[in-house]
Design goal:
The structure holds two protein chains of two kinds. In chain A, about 0% of the residues lie in helices and about 45% in strands. Chain A has strands spanning about 5, 10, 20-25, 35-40, 45-50, 60, 70-75, 80-85, 90-100, 110-115, 115-120. In chain A, strands 2, 4, 5, 6, 9, 10 and 11 form a seven-stranded mixed sheet that branches. A four-stranded antiparallel sheet of chain A has the order 1-3-8-7, with no helix packed on it. Classes of the chains: A mainly beta, B mainly beta. Chains A and B meet through strand 5 of A and strand 4, strand 5, strand 9 and strand 10 of B.
């Protein structure tokens, strides 16, 4: 059974940084592209970033480009999201998500989600 | 970015009703459209991918249709467990986008 377990969320001051992790099990991790999707309290879903199975290709929403960095360690079956220059607008639950494909291609989708980790940006 | 517009924003219906949720995109996306269901406090769940393919394990009362810029999610006979918020999502662009969500309540 595929399991995705996020960690690293918490309270951080504006302008601060945080590193989120997602430990994956029950899958051949390197065979799947992975994404981060966030949800502000009481709001809808926002796709944040994706990374190919190899880790060589990354994608970012305009709202986080230049501030967030996605990476993965396939030897440890772990996905990361480095969050820098945080603002109140980044307050959200961050979900780790798996796609069936390897390359974040046309027609891909999210077939498994973690339970999320809450990031709160406040002074 | 590709903009997604769902309608209605919310609806209330009775058990056994047929309901339809619409998703419109700002540019053509072929059939690269997915639907998710989210219940309060839970992660979303994939229902439909590729506009009309039913994800494994999802009840057959859920169906999707459409291509180009106009898509629909239909629940043929609403059940009590179908409450929640439904989101469409496009995967035509590498920069994915979600619709704003449709909240479904059971009368």
């Amino acid at each position: 059974e595929v399991q995705l377990l996020e960690s690293g969320g918490g309270l951080v001051q504006p302008g601060g940084s945080l590193r989120l992790s997602c430990a994956a099990s029950g899958l051949t991790f390197s065979s799947h592209s992975m994404s981060w999707v966030r949800q502000a309290p009481g709001k809808g879903l926002e796709w944040v970033s994706a990374i190919s199975g190899s880790g060589f290709t990354t994608y970012y929403a305009d709202s986080v480009k230049g501030r967030f960095t996605v990476s993965r360690d396939n030897s440890r079956n772990t996905l990361f999201l480095q969050l820098n220059s945080l603002t109140a607008e980044d307050t959200a639950t961050y979900y780790c998500a798996k796609s069936p494909g390897r390359g974040h291609d046309y027609g891909d989708r999210i077939d498994y989600w973690g339970q999320g980790t809450l990031v709160t940006v406040s002074s | 970015d590709i903009q997604m517009t769902q309608s209605p924003s919310s609806l209330s219906a009775s058990v056994g009703d047929r309901i339809t949720i619409t998703c419109r995109t700002s540019q053509t996306i072929s059939s690269y459209l997915n639907w998710y269901q989210q219940k309060p406090g839970k992660a979303p769940k994939l229902l439909i991918y590729g506009a009309s393919s039913l994800q494994s394990g999802v009840p057959s009362r859920f169906s999707g249709s459409g291509s180009g810029t106009d898509f629909t999610l239909t629940i043929s006979s609403l059940q009590p467990e179908d409450f929640g918020t439904y989101y469409c999502q496009q995967s035509y662009s590498n920069l994915w986008t979600f619709g704003q969500g449709t909240k479904v309540e059971i009368k």
